[in-house]
Design a protein that fits this description.
The protein is mainly β and 499 residues long. It folds into two domains: 16-416, Methylamine Dehydrogenase, Chain H, CATH 2.130.10.10; 426-498, Immunoglobulin-like, CATH 2.60.40.10. Helix content is 0%, strand content 39%. Strands 10, 11, 12, 13 and 14 form a five-stranded antiparallel β-sheet that branches. A four-stranded antiparallel β-sheet has the order 1-31-30-29, with no helix packed on it. A four-stranded antiparallel β-sheet has the order 2-3-4-5, with no helix packed on it. A hairpin with a 5-residue loop joins strand 4 (72-76) and strand 5 (82-87). 57% of the residues are buried.
Length: 499
């Protein structure tokens, strides 16, 4: 069984280690634009999706490159203006005190600052958690491997999730007190960290015999509307190749599914999930596995209820020349009710990416019923090896990154039109009556009304890309609507009113 962890500690030259694949038909869409990473402005963006912040710009990370060569946070406008926002490791002295090799999707805090992780670096070289202001001032909140034998975790790379209790939650790939035999420093943790940097471990993976609870969580966690956390592990479980788990905020873990239930030769349900889950409009959880899905071994898209039960394989990728293969990244919910994702390889391009002869990767759409369509096929010019996902901007365009390719071979950032319309995004997408909620969008100046599932709310226009609204008395869970001079905008996900 092939199990791969993309490690940024040695600059992750994806092009030398991974398969590529290709598909049959011509691209259904065209890129609106793509920009090249050149080394000085970053190198190898991977394992993350872009985050659209309150200023309307999108933010992401590269695992290496930047001013000092150890990774950066970059900013790109919806129109494609790419700039370096922060370069890690200004004061190198054997290690990077502020962290090295950032990974995972950045999180937007209630104060408007961004929060993220580096996989290595910090005084103990175990990775860091950081906060950065809109002006680019970075503060390290926590340095991993502070405790003996890295009992507090080592190698965070799945990104952070802001939960309803005001804390951030995430995972580390190594560290903790579990013992899985493939690391001198444990098998991974789930942790809670306050916005001021107080960290506590809430679960140590591989705490059960034979690691039946899973080990090496890779994609972080999400919080579902029922308040519980959900995620996946790359390894472990009853068949040793990954799990889907539920975790309460208090740290009680339940394994919902162990992958490869039919044995190691075909794994029709997939194996080795490496990305975060999402919760769909129907309340179910959706995700991807990098491998498996039958004899092709090209990966799957699946759904599962938050309560557990049967895992449904919605799509098994077929590889070259049919569709994509190796979906490292997870899915994003589109405003049209469908899901969008990327594959490391596959697509219709006949470009010979890295000598593999198997294509360069795709952006695909998949319906909740499992009907998959390739939206765009990449080549070596516009990028290849899409290890990160796509995100829908509030203008309706999809934005993402390719880890390799482009003019220097260091990757690209791109936008893609698939016919989606403008909408508004909620930050956060849940809260109690009286809570202040950020509403992010485009051209919000002149807004005349905001409502929560039909109940009018008081609001204030902060800028053209941000409104602050108060959850009104009598509000119920449902769509948030913003009325502007240019038309009515709906939230891409339902707002969940907390009791």
């Amino acid at each position: 069984m092939l199990r791969t962890r993309l490690s940024s500690s040695i600059a992750i030259m994806l092009s030398s280690a991974l398969f590529m694949a290709s598909a049959l038909s011509a691209p259904a869409q065209t890129l609106e634009w793509y920009k090249n990473f050149t080394g000085a402005n970053g190198r190898i963006p991977q394992l993350m999706s872009l985050l659209q912040s309150t200023d309307g710009n999108l933010y992401g990370t590269t695992s290496s490159g930047g001013k000092y060569g150890f990774g950066e946070i970059f900013r790109v406008s919806p129109a494609g203006a790419l700039t370096t926002f922060y370069s890690f490791c200004e004061n190198f002295d054997g290690i990077c005190p502020d962290g090295e090799a950032p990974a995972g999707t950045l999180a937007l805090g209630p104060n408007g600052n961004l929060y993220g992780e580096t996989q290595i670096g910090g005084p103990y070289n175990g990775g860091t958690i950081f906060e950065i202001t809109p002006n680019g001032k970075l503060t390290t909140l926590y340095n991993f491997c502070l405790q003996t034998n890295c009992a507090d975790g080592l190698g965070p790379d799945g990104g952070l999730t802001l939960a309803t209790d005001g804390n951030f939650y995430g995972t580390t790939y190594y560290g903790g007190s579990g013992s899985c035999g493939n690391s001198d420093h444990g098998c991974g943790t789930a942790f809670k960290i306050s916005p001021t940097g107080a960290l506590s471990t809430i679960y140590n993976f591989c705490s059960l015999a034979s690691c039946a609870d899973g080990d090496n969580p890779y994609g972080g966690v999400i919080q579902a509307t029922n308040g519980n956390l959900y995620g996946t592990t790359l390894d472990g479980g009853s068949y040793t190749v990954g799990t889907v788990f539920k975790l309460t905020l208090a740290g009680k873990l339940t394994t919902l599914h162990a992958f490869c239930m039919s044995g190691p030769l075909s794994c029709p349900d997939g194996y080795s999930p490496q990305s975060a889950l999402i919760q769909g409009p129907d309340g179910n959880l959706y995700g991807t596995t990098t491998y498996g899905g039958g004899d092709g071994d090209y990966g799957t898209v699946f759904s599962i209820s938050p309560a557990g039960g049967t895992l449904n394989t919605l799509h098994a990728f077929a590889g070259y020349p049919t569709d994509g293969s190796l979906p490292y990244s997870g899915l994003t919910s589109g405003s049209d009710g469908n899901f969008y994702g990327t594959t490391m390889s596959g697509g219709s391009s006949d470009a010979d990416c890295n000598g593999s002869g198997a294509g360069c990767g795709t952006v695909y759409q998949i319906t909740p019923a499992g009907v998959e369509t390739v939206e765009y096929s990449f080549d070596a010019t516009d990028g290849y090896s899409l290890s990160g996902g796509v995100v829908e901007g509030t203008n309706g365009l999809l934005y993402g990154t390719a880890s390799n390719g482009g003019s220097k071979g260091y990757g690209t950032v791109f936008s893609l039109s698939v016919g989606l319309g403008a909408f508004v995004r909620l930050a956060p997408a849940s809260g109690k009556v009286g809570a202040s909620i950020k509403i992010l969008g485009s051209d919000l100046t002149g807004t005349t009304a905001v409502s929560f599932n039909g109940t009018a709310a008081s609001f204030a226009i902060v800028k053209s890309t941000e409104i602050k609204a108060v959850v009104p008395t009598g509000a119920t869970s449902g769509t948030v609507t913003v009325t502007t001079p240019l038309g009515v905008l709906n939230s891409s996900v339902s707002f969940h009113v907390l009791k």
